[in-house]
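This is your field. Pick holes in the following sequence-structure pair:
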Amino acid sequence: MDDFEWSGELLHRAKQVFGIQDFRFCQKGVCNANMDGRDVVCVMPTGGGKSLTYQLPALLTPGTTVVISPLVSLITDQILHLREAGVEAVMLTGGTKKEESREVFNRLGKKKHAREQEEKEIKLCYVTPERIAKSKTFMSLMEKMALDGRLARIVIDEAHCVSSLGHDFRPDYKKLSILRQLFPSVPILALSATCPPSVLKDLLKILKLRPVVDGTSAPLDGGTVYFSSPLYRANLHYSVLPKPPSAAGAIQAMADYILAHHRGESGIVYCLSKKDTQTVADGIAQASKGKIRTGVYHADVEDAEKEGIHRRWRTGQVQVVCATIAFGLGIDKGDVRFVLHHSMSKSLDGFYQESGRAGRDGKHADCVLYYRGQDATRLSSLICGEVEGQEKCMFMLRFAQNLTDCRKLLFARYFSASSELATAAWEDPSAPASLAPCGHCDNCLRPPSTVSRKDVTFQAWQILRVVEEVCREGGRVTVGMLADLARGLGGGAFAVSGGGKGKRRKSEKSELDLEPLGGKVDLSKDDVEFLTIQLILDRYLAEDYHQTAYAVNVYLSPGLRAARLTRLPLALVRSGQREGPKVEGVFLLPLPRKARVSMGAKGKQAKVDDSWVPERKGKIRASKYPPEDVYGDEEEEDDGDVELVEPDSEETDIVEGDDWQLDMRGKRRLPSTNGTGGTGRQAKRRKGNGSGGKDANVYENSDMDDIEGVTAVWEDGQEVYVISP
């Protein structure tokens, strides 16, 4: 398609202004459709170069292109790049100073003959959707520009945000439906990296765009031109690593990974909540002994403060940004060599987009998810009220739980089932067998000797019977509690509610007899949690949500398929000689005991120093078990701040782990996992004087993060929690 009058100038400007020698994916087609004045929907992978598809036509077209973008961080990033390239670009956000806003309004309102000779025309104006939805002044300005022929086009970046079915729905995006009504002759370009058919249909309806036509054979009139590009990026190496049970252990594992594989390189660590970002940033800085400079990015800060830290990250003064989803959409920093996920994303769409911040320069980059079963419960408590939230969460869990299938193919199956891009969207023109395994993700590189595939029907039967028995007695059980009960820990005791509400609610203890239930489950705690999540995914178990004043509690109950297994007699299930459902589990094998020594960067044995473990405080209920699966004060993000965290020079620990891990280059290595040096997290209660005073209750090696009234201290080489009576 080189027969357009602008084709030569298009490539010339791409080379001259942006230093681009060749177009990628469908960039050229989208630019041509833009130049032709067509409405366009473009779905292109994260890092595929969507911005060029409107920035380049903006330089060749008279007038101003208005770009609607969801995040201030994204807008700031784009403005920095454009100004460095000499392009006249401005932004109007909540953080824009009044004087600057007034100047932008004056410049946009001037016709060509009214501008001073040395004053250049603004080619790109970036705004947030809130500006469109709530600023009558700006909308009046846009109408004036359109009447004068100076509104070249409207670009809606991250267009999936208009749909409540999308993974990043923004209410103010839905109000963009007014644009077609006010500007019927101004072309609209909608861009996204993930747009399933349901979202695409909703998007077209909300934005009042005509039905899509294929961009490779679009007629000269009618229809919204639709382009899609391959979603697979061969330079990204995906891995899911076991997440240590303690908060300190998880942070230490990430610090070790960064030092071992990406020392001095730029990266992002995504966290689920604003509170997590600060904890993780502080922890990584301290655990690395000051070798990793971290920043924090989330929603609770003024826009003006974001720009400064964003520049520091881009210039290398900050190596790692610990962030919520507020940081990322469209961030264009080419040399991001790794993206770590401290917790799972709420959907596989979100995980694909967030991990796609890595390797935008086409060079190798690592995308690592740290995962353990209890993270699933935490995530479920956050998305229980979202449209299709549970279904999206299940897809994400299946991805995390899978230890055998190629990550590329897992993505392909998901997007093939949920997107009009279909399997063809994963085709790589340079690879004839594009749907073959990638050969470089963790599952492709995992040695068979490190994985155990076995029939766990009996263990599944035991777990289901425990849940049935607890529910029959009027009790409630979480994933973490179930792992202990099924393994016979804690004497089989669990709490049973005796009726009433609030302070009148009575709680009694009940003892669980495991003998009729098949005895103790012969699996480690991590494996029981892993199997429990598999049973949830396979509908043998169900999650029940209980709203409290401060949180959503997630408990387990028998699922739709539970009776198919539990109706079988114990003797028959134990013998294995039966007909009926079969449950197969795939587990990571534990390390040999003599090999359980953590390796730090460059393969050297790490020096252990646990002095950095952070102090934690919170409220604990009168129960034998910590509230592992009860979460409150978790928030979604859409805008945020970064602040520089000064590194701590104290020495920190690198501790032992339980599972073999693979680095991104296929080498089998020892992980850095458990922050306490032990494999279990069962609380041991004793009496002591500690910081809690006389006869304070002290729990050793328990995972009681963020619990009010609990202080974590380091005593005799162990992490203990002192609970004031």
